[in-house]
Write a structure and sequence with these properties.
Low-confidence stretches: none
CATH architecture of the largest domain: 3-Layer(aba) Sandwich
Distance between the termini: 39 Å
CATH class of the largest domain: Alpha Beta
CATH topology of the largest domain: Alpha/beta knot
Number of domains: 2
Largest sheet: 5 strands, parallel
Helix content: 25-40%
Bound molecules: 6-chloroguanine
Shape: elongated
């Protein structure tokens, strides 16, 4: 998987992505990250990439031309048409199914928005997917791009060292994950649930399923309802 990131703050993306599991996957050649600074494609001597919005209003907008030149540079490097994801609160809300879909691609380009926004014309020209990471506002699109790249990365083969660990966790089956415990058996007067020490795999699996359902019902009634509807369909 090759990620390309158009941003005004490449070091923010580079630093975070080269840490921990994604960093290891880059070192092992399973992931590649190319951050490209939009400012390098400024078309004036001041290297500015923003200007005032027509019609007035607060703040500055990122101009179309530097972003477009940055995009053309990346496309030339990739050598074929590629999906361009704009990180924006005005977009479809990201979820596990979208992560799985994006993980099928060989190359992905992210466009990180900043300032108050981007000239709509370049969005219309190059963006294939407008994606938000939730109903709250952030100062820029770098963290959302990192969030998406992280969740996509862990679905790319070989990125996680344990091949089963991305199949049985929260959201992959529409439910939240059950609670887990490690040593010691007793901590601060709190015991590990007896069934987990029993070695009885069928009972353990049943307990975990039950806990998953309980938690989903408690914390995410919306997901629980969806899961119930799916079960009824299957019956
Ligand atoms: Cl993708 N960008 C910004 N600026 N804020 C957000 C977001 C994206 N998703 C949620 N809030």
């Amino acid at each position: 998987m090759n990620f390309y990131c158009m941003t005004l703050f490449p070091e923010m993306i580079d630093n975070a992505f080269s840490t921990s599991i994604t960093g290891r996957a880059m070192n092992n050649g399973y992931l590649n990250l190319h951050t490209v600074n939009i400012r390098d494609f400024a078309n004036n001597t001041h290297n500015s990439v923003d200007d005032y919005p027509f019609g007035g209003g607060a703040g500055m907008l990122m101009q179309a031309e530097p972003i477009y030149r940055c995009y053309e540079h990346i496309i030339e490097e990739i050598g074929k048409e590629t999906r361009v994801i704009l990180t924006t609160p005005v977009g479809k809300v990201f979820n596990q199914a979208m992560a799985a879909e994006f993980a099928q691609e060989e190359n992905l380009i992210f466009l990180c928005g900043h300032y108050e926004g981007i000239d709509e014309r370049v969005i219309e020209k190059i963006v294939t997917d407008r994606v938000s990471i939730g109903d709250y506002v952030l100062t820029g699109g770098e963290l959302p791009a990192l969030v998406m790249m992280d969740s996509i990365s862990r679905l790319v083969p070989c990125v996680l060292s344990n091949s089963v660990s991305s199949t049985y966790e929260s959201h992959s089956n529409g439910l939240l994950e059950y609670p887990q415990y490690t040593r010691p058996r007793e901590w601060n007067g709190m015991e590990v649930p007896e069934v987990l020490l029993s070695g009885h795999h069928k009972n353990i699996a049943a307990w975990q399923k039950e806990e998953s359902l309980k938690r989903t019902k408690k914390y995410r009634p919306d997901l629980y309802k969806k899961w119930e509807e799916e079960q009824n369909k299957e019956d």
